[in-house]
Amino acid sequence: MKNHFLTLLFIAVAGICSAQAQVTGKWKTIDDETGDAKSIVEITEKDGKIYGKVVEILNPEKKASKCQNCTGTDKDKPILGLTIIKGLEKKGDEYTNGKILDPQKGKLYKCTISLDGKDKLNVRGYVGISLLGRTQTWSRVK
Questions:
Q1: Which of 43, 67, 87, 113 could anchor a disulfide with 98, C-beta 3.0 to 4.6 Å?
Q2: Ranges for the DUF2147 domain (predicted)?
Q3: What span, in angstroms and rounded, lies between the C-alpha atoms of 72 and 91?
Q4: Is 73 helix (H, G, I), strand (E, B) or coil?
Q5: pLDDT tens-digit readout, 44-88
Q6: ∠48-114-52 over CA atoms, to 5°?
Q7: How far apart (Å, rounded) are the C-alpha atoms in residues 136 and 122?
Q8: Cα–Cα distance for residue pair 105/123, rounded to 1 Å
Q9: Quick check: 139 and 120 in contact, CB under 8 A?
Q10: Are 134 and 124 in contact (CB under 8 A)?
């Protein structure tokens, strides 16, 4: 009887863990205009908030690019190592109430991210309301 209980408990815990896919990890970003892979962003959690940092630039010609159009403390920083997702909070099945930086344009947008399965991440940047924005789908790096 004890073995049956432990087996059921193990199955239940494994099922819960697999059902709660995480947004944390490494994600390949895709240029929504060209369809080309651009970079690898590592998403981490700190103090209950989500952040994303560029950890690899896939185009060798752009590896030394700087955030020339950025303002404030991000101005002229190398894009490699730059935190582009800032302060998202979990709300239901998505993360919201944070910002995302477009290093090419130097603009900061409101941001919402949500999982589409366990290996696709929908990243939406917008101005004002979510209807006024665009969504990219990133792929998990294994």
A1: 87
A2: 25-140
A3: 29
A4: helix
A5: 999 999 999 999 999 999 999 999 999 999 999 999 999 999 999
A6: 55
A7: 6
A8: 17
A9: yes
A10: yes
Q: What is the pLDDT of residues 112-123, one digit of tens each?
A: 999 999 999 999
Provide the residue count of the chain.
142
H or E segment to which residue 68 belongs: none
Q: How far is CA 97 from the centre of its chain?
A: 14
H or E segment and range at residue 125? strand 120-126
Domains plus CATH for the chain?
Answer: 22-140 (2.40.128.520)
Instruction: Assign 138 to helix, strand or coil.
Output: strand
Q: What 3-state DSSP class applies to 100?
A: strand
Phi, psi angles (nearest 5°) of residue 36: -80, 145
